[in-house]
């Protein structure tokens, strides 16, 4: 049996960023730290990217090496204790990709999500039947148990939209996603109806980029921007593509994707007009059904 999968928390990610910043401020390379302390550069890389939590003696050694003042050491040691918690993960997530479970953990701690989806409905807005059809269509090599695990994880994520302090979701969807009959006409009609209902929630904004918009910045692929309450927790960009799943957290990358999202907000129909377009497409599909 393999080791139990764990996922990083926002506190661990913050701690990793602080350690990376401290090393940069001293002008030391990872190889320099290895030479002075014996801590392998690869191990330090894993610590600085939140892939592993350092032992306390290693953490304390790094603070002393970087010459961290006593008051800041106390703050960072408090953060170190907080970082011990595990990210949110369920037993049926064991077969999910590590990057996806990491995303689930970060999404659970986020204040808001800005999501552009080009060819499909965003996971937080999918019906169960649509989600199942998507998983079967995109991951056609996975078995039935794995399919159901992925669907279950996706459905549980949606609880974030109805909790006491709901996740603020701003979804921009390409019109093409509204026309693909994922799962067949019946499943798609139910999915469009679900979108119309979701759009009435006060913390959910849905916009549609119409075909008439022509070429736009979202065409290269979907992306998600995760926003966090604490100013020390920088925004995070998540991209899921056929080349793999990646997280971007540099200031330049985050600013670029913020600009891209703002551009998409401008070229998309307004929320009210987007609801009208979704309703029109749903009505057209209904008329085709009854001939």
Automatic annotation (TrEMBL):
Official protein name in the record: Helix-turn-helix protein
Record-annotated HTH cro/C1-type domain positions: 19-73
Species: Saccharothrix carnea
GO-annotated molecular function: DNA binding
Alphabetical list of PROSITE patterns matching this protein: HTH_CROC1
Gene3D superfamilies for the chain: lambda repressor-like DNA-binding domains (1.10.260.40)
Upper taxonomic lineage: Bacteria, Bacillati, Actinomycetota, Actinomycetes, Pseudonocardiales
């Amino acid at each position: 049996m393999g080791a139990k999968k764990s996922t990083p928390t926002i506190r661990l990610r913050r701690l990793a960023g602080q350690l990376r910043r401290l090393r940069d401020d001293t002008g030391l390379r990872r190889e320099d730290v290895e030479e002075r302390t014996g801590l392998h550069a690869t191990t330090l890389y894993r610590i600085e990217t939140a892939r592993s939590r350092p032992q306390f003696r290693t953490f304390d050694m790094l603070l002393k090496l970087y010459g961290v003042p006593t008051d800041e050491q106390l703050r960072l040691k408090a953060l170190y204790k907080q970082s011990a918690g595990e990210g949110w993960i369920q037993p049926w997530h064991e077969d999910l990709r590590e990057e996806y479970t990491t995303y689930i953990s970060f999404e659970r701690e986020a204040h808001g999500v800005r999501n552009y989806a080009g060819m499909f409905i965003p996971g937080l807005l999918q019906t169960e039947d649509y989600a199942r059809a998507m998983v079967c269509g995109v991951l056609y090599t996975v078995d039935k148990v794995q399919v159901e695990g992925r669907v279950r994880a996706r459905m549980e994520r949606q609880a974030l939209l109805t909790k006491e302090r709901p996740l603020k979701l701003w979804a921009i969807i390409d019109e093409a996603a509204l026309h693909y009959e994922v799962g067949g006409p019946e499943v798609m009609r139910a999915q469009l109806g679900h979108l119309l209902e979701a759009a009435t929630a006060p913390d959910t904004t849905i916009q549609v980029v119409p075909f008439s918009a022509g070429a736009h910045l979202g065409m290269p692929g979907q992306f998600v921007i995760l926003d966090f309450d604490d100013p020390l927790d920088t925004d995070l960009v998540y991209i899921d593509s056929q080349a793999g799943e990646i997280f971007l957290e540099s200031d330049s990358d985050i600013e670029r994707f913020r600009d891209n999202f703002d551009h998409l907000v401008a070229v998309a129909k307004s929320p009210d007009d987007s609801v009208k377009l979704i309703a029109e497409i749903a009505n057209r599909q209904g008329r085709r059904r009854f001939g």
